[in-house]
Design brief:
about 230 residues, Nucleotidyltransferase, domain 5, 2 domains, 5-stranded mixed sheet, about 30% helix
């Protein structure tokens, strides 16, 4: 299976091609950025496809991160994945950024609970808690940092994501300190691997929003419909 993976949800613009038959990521590129994904993504995908010596028709599926993350970034990646899937006649798979952040720690089999946390500002984080085998303990949610700390079972733990250091700062001093891996975005290679393993849902990917956008139309300014 050949998978094109795309991630523009957080602090990077990234793409990779996985050839599962060869058991390898044959090409990948990731550029750290918080803005400008729309301009950077398609040229980046073209470079990755060329480096992997892969045509869009050779792909079996397209995988894309769907959130939580930047409202604008999510739309850029999802629109690209859906467009490529439509043109190539191949399925598009949506993947959670939190699952992608946790994936390498699940694969490491370190027997640690995994807390994937993304900085949501205003002392809040998007987070999900995983058992060492990858099953979900706490489903994706947006909450105060202290709530994320309380949600983690007692015992060895690892915190990953852009909110990792924020959560670690609230960790109880009498508890065993977790291992902290602060990363701005998931490893695009793991997005590709999750994409290869995921089941097709039969519906195009759509954004996973855990809160409403900050900019919203004012109800008072709306004109009545006729």
């Amino acid at each position: 299976m050949r998978v094109l993976a795309i991630d523009t949800a957080l602090g990077a613009c990234a793409a990779a091609v996985l050839d599962s038959r060869a058991g390898a990521i044959v090409a990948s590129e990731s550029q750290g950025m918080v803005r400008g994904h729309a301009e950077a993504l398609m040229p980046l995908i073209a470079r990755v496809m060329d480096a992997g010596r892969c045509e869009f028709g050779d792909l079996d599926r397209i995988a894309v991160t769907v959130g939580p993350g930047s409202f604008t970034g999510l739309r850029v990646g999802i629109a690209a994945a859906r467009g490529i899937a439509l043109a190539a006649g191949k399925p598009a798979i949506g993947l959670s950024t939190l699952s992608a952040l946790a994936a390498p720690h699940v694969a490491a089999r370190a027997n640690q609970v995994i807390l994937a946390a993304i900085d949501a500002r205003n002392e809040q984080v998007y987070f999900q808690v995983f058992a060492p085998n990858g099953t979900t303990i706490v489903t994706p949610r947006l909450d105060r940092i202290r709530a994320a700390v309380v949600a983690v079972p007692v015992g060895p733990a690892v915190i990953t994501g852009s909110g990792a250091e924020l959560v670690a700062a609230y960790w109880p001093t009498r508890s065993v300190m977790p291992r902290v891996e602060a990363v701005a975005a998931p490893d695009i290679g793991w997005v590709a691997r999750l994409g290869a393993a995921a089941q097709e849902e039969g519906a195009p990917p759509k954004p996973l929003y855990l809160r409403r956008p900050d900019a919203r139309p004012q109800d008072a300014g709306r004109l009545p419909r006729r």
